[in-house]
Specification:
Layout (H helix, E strand, L loop, with lengths): L8 E4 L6 E3 L3 H11 L6 H14 L10 H22 L9 H11 L6 E3 L3 H10 L4 E5 L4 H8 L8 E4 H4 L6 H11 L4 E5 L2 H10 L3 E5 L19 E2 L5 H8 L1
Parallel strand pairs: 1-4, 1-6, 4-5, 6-7, 7-8
Antiparallel strand pairs: 2-3
Helix pairs in contact: 1-2, 2-3, 3-4
């Protein structure tokens, strides 16, 4: 692999890269469901959620005005959750699914369900000390702003680009191009944990991708049928080794 050109900008994914889940989605969904009298195994919900999430359309709303976007985000996630419980065979047990899901949606807007990875702050501080500008490029929704604030990450980033606002979701090159164009950089590294969304998406937009492969990925590892041509890291602090190689 050839040495990389030094970055003028680093963009990062959010969930699975900067922070992860304290509990599985199935555990949380199951706990909230039990409160309204619906009993379902968390492991069943986990499997159903992965299937529903993969089957859902992108969380992107091109042409939608800002005042309507928050409702569209809620409806998108409500549809994923409803499909999760449908696949688990218990959707019909909810008397009012929208009323059930509203507090679940609000819960994920707080810091409580999220765990900041231990390598994140040291890496961000190192890049900040080197005057490397940082941005977030994520398929999350507008709740991400509050989560970044609550986890103490917001001050490190010059901008946050989310699919629901841009109108395009990774791996669509548009979301990467919008972020890069806003800064005007020509040498950009993108770091994320998803092969399809982060690595393939960044490559499609002409960025240098770095694949973050944590010991406990949030989603199942992909079955790759192609040679790996990008740097792989297990923690963000390993990027410092790559940076030293560009000096």
């Amino acid at each position: 692999m050839h040495p990389l050109d030094p970055p003028q900008l680093i963009t990062l994914d959010a969930v699975g890269t900067l922070f992860g889940l304290r509990e599985s989605v199935g555990t949380v969904y199951g706990r909230f469901a039990a409160e309204v009298g619906v009993d379902v195994e968390p492991t069943v919900l986990d499997t159903s959620f992965f299937q529903a999430f993969r089957a859902a359309p992108p969380c992107a709303f091109p042409g939608l005005a800002a005042p309507q976007r928050a409702e569209a985000e809620l409806q998108w996630w409500q549809a994923v959750a409803a499909d999760t419980f449908r696949r688990a065979g218990v959707l019909e047990q909810f008397a009012d699914f929208r009323a059930f899901f509203a507090p679940v949606f609000a819960y994920y807007a707080t810091a409580e369900p999220w765990c900041l990875y231990g390598d994140v702050l040291p890496a961000l501080k190192d890049w900040q000390a080197q005057d490397i500008p940082l941005m977030v490029v994520s398929n999350f929704d507008s709740r991400l702003y509050g989560v970044l604030e609550a986890l103490g990450l917001a001050p490190f980033f010059q901008a946050v680009w989310i699919s629901s606002e841009v109108g395009a979701a990774k791996p669509d090159r548009l979301i990467f191009e919008r972020a890069v164009a806003s800064y005007g950089a020509s040498q950009v590294w993108h770091i994320g944990d998803s092969w399809e969304e982060d690595v393939r998406g960044a490559q499609g937009a002409g960025l240098q991708a770095i694949w973050l492969r944590r010991d406990r990925p949030l989603l199942p590892e992909p079955a790759l049928n192609e040679p790996l041509t990008v740097p792989q890291i297990a923690e963000l602090t390993e990027v410092q080794v790559i940076l030293r190689g560009t000096a």
